[in-house]
Design brief:
Strand order of the largest sheet: 1-2-3-4-5-6-7-8
Number of helices: 2
Order of helices and strands: HHEEEEEEEEEEEEEEEE
Strand content: over 45%
Number of strands: 16
Distance between the termini: 103 Å
Oligomer: single chain
Largest sheet: 8 strands, antiparallel, barrel
């Protein structure tokens, strides 16, 4: 009788009748199904994902012939990465604004090539071209009144100052300050330009030199900056600027 019962059970198992380890099989199938779902989710994420883009804000000033000048602010990036990759595009979008010292603003757009470190932006009759360094970008531009130079720091906290210099010569005096560094441009009424570099100690005390061998000092007080300048040829005078350049 026992032998007959065992035989029946064996036959039932062979022909797939209920029981005989179906719980294990179901568990295995469920686990397999779960794994497939996880794989599908991963695949979906991979096929539809877009790597996060990065943006860098540049702030500074420009100065040129005919008393032209003002503040410049641009953002590089924003959509500057392609799908399914974390590598930035070689050429990234640029957008921003010029705040003119004489009043008004200009919308500018362009591109930044991170392979050549070249920044190119245009708008409102202006065209800027510069080369990036570890601190920012310095370059030249042409505008409605003529040509000039510009400099921007790679920092959203940079503060632009726009003003004038007077004395034995006079003209536009624009610079930008960030984290103890100073950079800018001076352009005389004769259209001749000079590049300014310097330091700011304690957030107030300015010391600078220029490419054409002028030098000077100054002090920041609130939203204003004032100081003296002297050239290697004996010329001297004063300078002043206001934060924000009217913006």
């Amino acid at each position: 009788m026992i032998r007959t019962f065992v035989s029946v059970v064996l036959v039932a198992c062979v022909f797939g009748v209920a029981g005989c380890g179906s719980d294990d099989s179901s568990s295995s199938s469920s686990s397999s199904s779960g794994g497939s779902s996880s794989s599908s989710s991963s695949s979906s994420s991979s096929s539809g994902g877009t790597a996060p883009s990065t943006q860098t804000t540049y702030k500074g000033t420009f100065a040129g012939a005919g008393g032209d000048g003002g503040a410049i602010q641009v953002t590089v990036g924003g959509g500057g990465t392609s799908k399914q990759t974390i590598h930035p595009l070689a050429v990234q979008q640029v957008s921003g604004t010029l705040t003119l010292s004489g009043g008004g603003s200009v919308t500018i757009t362009g591109s930044f090539d991170d392979q050549t470190n070249q920044l190119t932006i245009t708008g409102g009759g202006y065209s800027f071209t510069g080369t990036a360094t570890s601190d920012g970008v310095t370059g030249t531009y042409t505008g409605p009144k003529g040509s000039g130079t510009f400099t921007v720091f790679a920092s959203a906290n940079a503060v632009p100052y726009c003003g004038t210099f007077t004395g034995d010569s006079s003209g536009v005096w624009n610079f930008v300050v960030d984290a103890g560094k100073l950079s800018g441009s001076a352009v005389g009424s004769d259209g001749k330009g000079d590049l300014i570099t310097g330091t700011v100690t304690g957030g107030t005390d300015i010391t600078f030199t220029t490419k054409n061998n002028a030098s000077g000092t100054g002090k920041i007080s609130g939203s204003s900056a004032t100081g003296d300048w002297a050239s290697a040829g004996g010329g001297k005078g004063t300078w002043s600027g206001t934060a924000g350049c009217g913006g």
